[in-house]
Amino acid sequence: VKNIFSGASNTIAIFVYDMTNPYFNSIISHLSRITFENSYSLLLFDCMNDEEKELEYYEYCKSVRVAGIVYASGTSRGEPPVNEETSFPIVILANTEYLSRDRYSLHSDDKKSLQLLTDYLYNLNHRKIGFITGPAEILSSQDRLNAFTANAARLGLSVPRHFVCQGDFSVQSG
């Protein structure tokens, strides 16, 4: 009854790229705890990098009047496939800055993370360091590869082509 009058439910939705990815499992776990502690429920949508699914899920979220969406989908698009009439806040977990009305972003510092990782391996006297990327269509995959190669160059390390393999952010590809 409350959401009939307030226009929103006590439900937060999260859109993820792949529920089997430990990165997303960690986010889901923390968000689940936070929502429960604040008397909210959590809807989980595994988008699998499918824009049509994302749009269907988004329309469903509108129909049940979610209080907000956490968009951790990681697709090849730089921003969620939503229209500007969004009546609820959207938080985007991304590596690119995207801010507008009712949209907020949280980003990881991939450049710093890869610098720390490369420096750590270098300080352990590793000089042949490879890199497994994510899918080529995912924006962060190329950004991370660029950060890795820049750090390797800074340390005077060569990165032959066969040291770089394309993965899909899964444990199996790792």
Summarize the structure.
With 174 residues, this protein is of the alpha/beta class.
Walk me through the structure.
The chain is an alpha/beta fold and 174 residues long. The strands form two sheets. A five-stranded parallel β-sheet has the order 2-1-3-4-5, with helices on both faces. The longest helix is centred in the first third of the chain and has 16 residues. The radius of gyration is 19 Å and the shape is elongated. The N terminus is likely disordered.
Strand order of the largest sheet: 2-1-3-4-5
Query: Ends: how far apart?
Result: 48 Å
Enumerate the spans where pLDDT stays under 50 for 5 or more consecutive residues: 1-5
Taken as a percent bin, the fraction of beta residues is: 15-25%
Oligomer: single chain
What's the number of extended β-strand segments?
7
Cα Rg: 19 Å
Q: Helix- and strand-based class?
A: alpha/beta
Biggest β-sheet: count, sense, barrel?
5 strands, parallel
In which range does the helix fraction lie?
25-40%
Shape: elongated
Number of helices: 5
Run of helices and strands: HEHEHEEEHEHE
The whole-number mean of residue pLDDT values reads 81
Attribute tags:
7 strands, 5 helices, alpha/beta, 5-stranded parallel sheet, two-stranded parallel sheet
Topology readout:
Layout: H1 2-6, E1 11-16, H2 22-37, E2 41-46, H3 51-63, E3 68-72, E4 90-93, E5 103-106, H4 110-123, E6 131-133, H5 139-154, E7 164-166
Parallel strand pairs: 1-2, 1-3, 3-4, 4-5, 6-7
Helix pairs in contact: 4-5
